[in-house]
Amino acid sequence: MASSSMAFQVYASPTSPSGPARLQSRLQVQLRIWLPVLLCASVFAVESTSCFGADHTSAPLQRLAEAIFGNCVDAHWALIHHLIRKTGHFAGYGIFSLVCFRGFCLAFQDAASRLRRRLQAHGLAILATFLVACADEFHQSFLPNRTGQFSDVLLDTCGAVVLCLALFLVMQMAKGCRQERRRAGRRRKPACAEAAA
């Protein structure tokens, strides 16, 4: 399993070029780092239009739910539709925070401590998610069939916190497993050396 430092080395800016070539190389690196963040933000921008208001998404989603579960969804469709939309908020902005984490983690490669770099990246990813969610809800407050609600901002930020925390715990567990394997490998080496002697 490749370590995260090996994966991030792909984005390390080369030191050999100079002048315009070096600037172009840095721009390419920055584009590779931040393009996924921009693509996710553009999805939110499209989704934040009046075309994706609850009045437009209800009928297609209801038809899909009826095709899967039958007509039993009709009696509770308003609640189901509300839960689908709120789950979309939570999951969509949670995924956005992970994409932001990747960008910030790559941008902070020169940080002395890997743990500090990850914590900074997680904090900034959550902050970026909060700011984008605020901008999204503010924009929706001007649309006739949408409402800007701070509760949605909090839900989006909760999605970011939960997914960032889950990722942090997974990364810490993976680090612990790698260290345990190294320790086990060191313990085996002397035994193998004795057997060879």
Q: Spans of 5+ residues with little confidence (pLDDT < 50)?
A: 1-10
Shape: extended
How many strands in all?
Answer: 0
Return the string of H and E elements. HHHHHH
Strand percentage lies at under 5%
Give the fraction of residues assigned to helices.
over 70%
User: How many angstroms does the end-to-end distance come to?
Assistant: 32 Å
Mean pLDDT: 86
Q: How many strands, which pairing sense, and closed or not: the largest β-sheet?
A: none
What is the rounded Rg? 23 Å
Overall structural class, as computed from helix and strand content, comes to mainly alpha
Q: How many separate domains?
A: 1
Number of helices: 6
What's the SSE blueprint?
Blueprint (H helix, E strand, L loop, with lengths): L3 H6 L10 H28 L6 H16 L7 H31 L6 H27 L9 H47 L1
Describe this structure in words.
- This protein is mainly α and 197 residues long.
- Helices cover 79% and strands 0% of the residues.
- Helix 3 packs across helix 4 (77-107), helix 4 crosses helix 6 (150-196) and helix 5 packs antiparallel against helix 6.
- The relative contact order is 0.10.
